[in-house]
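As a warm-up, study this chain.
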Amino acid sequence: MFINKVLGGDEISDINATGQFIKVMSCESSVRLRVFNDAELILDTEARAGFDVQTSKPFKLIQVVSETPQRIEFWVSEHKLTYDALSKKPSKAKSFLAEYYGGGQKILPFDSSQSKVKISPSFDCVYGGEGVDFDSGFNLAAGDVYIHESAAPLYIKSRIPKEYKLIAGAASIENETSTVISTAFSGLWVNGNYAYIKIKEFQNTKVFNLETAEIYNGFINDSMCIHEGVVTALTTSSSGFELTSFTDDMSQELSKVSFFTPDFKATKIVSAKGYVFVFGEDAESGASRLLKVEDNSLIDVDLGAISGAKVVRYVHYSEESEKFFAYTGSEMLICPFDFSSVQSMVVSDGLLDCLAIETSSYISFSTASRKALIINKATSQRYEPPFTKYYQGYVKDNQSILVNDDGVYESGDLIAYSKVADIDDIFSGDKTAGFFYGEDFVFLARDRNRFSLLKIPRQADLTPKGVVKVLKESY
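Now compare it with the structure written out below.
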């Protein structure tokens, strides 16, 4: 008899069937077959499409295991199956429209009966196999036709972004902390499953495990950055500074390097292009200086267009745009990596030493005042939402999320905003910082003198961004 089975990844599927012959008609990838006669194991083997075997004795149970989800079709019988195709030409044709939701998407699954497929998208894209991107994919313009002469899956990707929406309702907010932080905070950084919340007093750091909700004391520091996946912390003294690297949970010290720099006062560190850079001031003149750490040595970097600027109090480096965003306390200096030019923006909000939320189009900084600082990376202009207060902002293309003092708002056009979560009973004050953990939006909110990490889940927006015409021919 024919058996069709949908297999889950790394799951055991038991099939009660008797016989002595097994023929795998189709499957997308290899599977493991274990064949039993009562408690006796008769056969244990890897199998692929076309696999054909006769067991040494009759069996009563077949176990099928697949590492990846897939559909398998096979023949099980007491009698041998021989199959000769009557025709090598396809006998069925089907036309349909496949909806496209943005980003990378599988447009055709594996189908062993598939002979040939023609696709024509309504948008420019690239096509290829699993993991296709703009470097590895083949270009396909809107309205053009690609002929796929294979049973293999087909993936496409376009520059139309996949969008997400917050799940509306106050009930969607969860207090993620088992212990709230009952003191003022001055910074927030995130690395994988860990958030590092800097406490104002004594520059202590609380480490919060986002997966388990555990919270504990971290390393006392003056500044920190995430350098090649490793937490690097700066501690200063009157004679110099130290850079200490830790495991991601800050439980284990990996390395420590001390620098004797009586002529240099370090203020902030940042990771850029594989190096740690130390911003600070000349001890004698008070002018800004920048040091690059290379092979445990310090190299002075020419600040070029911002030479003579005020001392940097906060700095972020954008890997995508290859620009430094340096805040001096009164202005934001936006410079390329070589500091050959500068764009200056007056900022009176007072930036917090927090993780910047960066997208392809915008970058958002948390502030100590009533408004987040949201900058259009292409124009270096500040984006001003239609609110008098917005403590945290996220903007990507035309999608925006803003945290206000009475709720969380979302917009799909940067103009009209709607409230998706009411937080006025658990949130008050003027300091918050946010980030994304998986697909969820998480932010550190203050309720009087207490801070809690709050989470709002997101879900994919399945509004079609385009369609793909498909003509599928099958045997």
